[in-house]
## 1
Amino acid sequence: DMETLSGKKILFVAGGVGTAPVYPQVKWLHEHGIAADVIVGAKTKDLLILEEEMKAVAGNLYVTTDDGSYGRSGMVTQTIQDLVQKEGKTYDVCIAIGPMIMMKFTCKMTESLNIPTVVSLNPIMVDGTGMCGACRVTVGGEVKFACVDGPEFDGHKVNFDEAMKRQQIYKTEEGRAFLKAKEGATHHGGCGNCAG
């Protein structure tokens, strides 16, 4: 509903290459007369992408670099806190896309500020069919698969610690075998009994 959407104060938080999927969403909103604030975080100025493109469509663009080489110094979470607590901004919803660790701490910050937050768990997806089990994640106490049940989820309900640990374990053949043995029939999302 465009009328409802146009009344929302939206904050996007993009980390690293997460800026790429955030840009078309902000652009679409801009084309429909909705100005969204955007925080783009990068480790260094050299790793910042789509700054000019984002500047053209964002209501307000806040660039942060972890090393302070450009824009605001520090993590995106500090900018969220500053915008709300120091600059008096209010937001109805936050959309965060980027590395898992960034989304985890963004959600911790937005939860403390009572801002509903949607995250995209596409960083943990491998095959996109639910057959491999790599993107299995616990959301609100329920097992979900980012590729078939998401990838967007309520960030305040995602068990990021479990997902990040799983991401590390899944990198090795031994780790994948361990998870398959531990999780049994719930290891896969698509078929539930694939031999893969």
## 2
Amino acid sequence: MTKYILSIDGGGIRGIIPAVILAEIEKRARKPISQIFDLMAGTSTGGIVVAGLCKKDERGNLQYSANDLVEL
């Protein structure tokens, strides 16, 4: 069984680059990043991006898209 893993490195303000790329992947796939990857991890800024992509609201729906994080 194939598993898809997303690993995002840190880099301070350069964390915007993976967020922009992930926003484009979401746009093309027409689904949230968290539904594409089985495991997501990151260091430093990458960890913050991953946390944002996995955060759910009070109803259990994903709260932020990759594009939301780019705008943030």
## 3
Amino acid sequence: MNSNENGQNASGKNKTLHVSDFYRDAVVLVTGGTGFLGKVLVEKLLRSFAVKKIILLIREKRSVSPTQRLQQMVCDPIFDTIRASVSQPSKIFDKLVAIETDFSSPDFVKEPYKSDILNETQVVFHVMASIRFDLGIQHVMDTNVTGTERLYGLLRNASRLQAIVHVSTFYSNCDRSHIEECVYDDIRFGGWDNIRRIIAPLTESEKAKLMPALIAPLPNNYSFSKKCTEVMIQQQFADLPIGIFRPPIVTPSYKEPIPGWVDCIQGITGLCIPILKQRLLWYYGEPSACPALTPVDYCIAGMITAACDISVRHEDNRVLESFGRHASKPPVYNYFFDKTPFSWQQFIELVGSGLPTRMGRKLSTLRTRVTRWKILSTITYWWMYFVAYIGDIIQSLFGRPKSNVRLVSGLKTLADVLEYFRCNSWTARNDNVKRMRSLLSKEDEALLEFDVDRIEFKDYFIQYTKGLLLELERRELRRRQKTQKGSNVNV
């Protein structure tokens, strides 16, 4: 490992990262800005840094235009802290610009917006990704690999570009028990380009049958696509100021902007629903395995800092190259902390400890568990399906829509695709993450806390459970309003 890979400049000295200065009057481009990670990123940049503009690449969705989607996003409670803390919040929100995007097309941004991006963009956060594990390979690869290739191909011509943070996942190489901060290019069958040629003439059902063998030993299309994207970046875009940021499982916020904030029920948060609803369900897995978790606000602070670090590294590389010396490859940031003090079973206990009633807290670990015995998990699912069928029968008698069995089926699908991650544990190097944390200026340390090892998890999980319960209440309210609106229309 050369001196630059250790985070040193050409003279061998570490550089302090002045993150606030880096973002002052900067134009930032964000993909995936309307998603869970993206919203927290945009809010943090607006609230804590004096950025000039944030360009959001947004696709039209269900006939809702990008501009309308941006307006809906700004109305989200996550931005209430900004509205409450400044006298003219509209001036802050005027920094947001929505540009219509269609990554399924080679010409994914039209003029004059393309020229604006190339002339103005300084910092890029590529957060957009297809994160569902159960989607077909073609859809996942088109979004996560081809879309990324198109974006970075365009940004190669951006005249003011200083840093690109490519948001990958810690599980892009989850077939390894120990993960280094490097790109692993050991894709089987000659890489994705060759696999693409193999599956091109196949039907969707044939692809579904063949892909598990082609992507093995990785467990799903999502992890495989993220690995392929990392390899593509190293092979095609190593000349750009780009770094690969690998977050683990991202969970509700710890402190910012609102303790416990979450707006999506998927992944691990989705599996917490039986705990919150105080239902009987045992998950199959290894109870003693330790999950890799990070609150979303800590993850975002790490990403924001990484952009500054990537810019410094790139400038150092240019100095090294001018002297004919070897420059490092794109840096990889394993946002992984190995002092996680709890197992999967203890995680369930921590979530249950935040339930509002004493009886609920006492019974939570009996109702929901992680078990090594798959038959016990299967029995509890049978029971949950039985209760759901009864519930749907009662709802139909009162003329209400049946939804219980559908919800249980969704939960079962989610539990199945996450089974691999409940059965395994990983170790990793995180030198780049620790190093950039040590290089933060004193002024920025107060703004950017991303050391997960410093979290008081008992306190955090109180906020975690409260945040999930609030999100379930919001969803139930929206469901009732939708049902009521439908009833009024029928009348």
